[in-house]
Design a protein that fits this description.
By secondary structure, the protein is mostly helical. The chain is 62% helix and 0% strand.
Length: 88
């Protein structure tokens, strides 16, 4: 299979995307971090971002089919309003 070379426009677009992400991660890295450290961190950030996207898409898909969203710890805490109920 023969592939055609990438065009300058394709390279430019990929560079824009890469360096935008690189700069975001690099700005949050500790002082003295190397480029290699930042790229390794970017790989982990991309994994987390992909997981978040996957979870969001699954939630939207499930809600579309009528499944109730999962309860969170906040939903499961006992109600504090019971003490304010007055009995006659």
């Amino acid at each position: 299979m023969k592939k055609t070379p990438l065009t300058p426009e394709e390279i430019n677009k990929a560079s824009d995307l890469f360096f935008e992400a690189f700069n975001i991660v690099s700005a949050r890295m500790p002082e003295g971090s190397t480029v290699e450290d930042t790229i390794k961190c970017m790989e982990q950030v991309n994994k987390v971002a992909s997981k978040l996207r996957q979870d969001k898409e699954a939630k939207i898909r499930d809600e579309r089919f009528g499944f109730a969203p999962a309860l969170t710890d906040k939903d499961l805490r006992p109600l504090d309003t019971m003490s304010s109920i007055q009995l006659d």
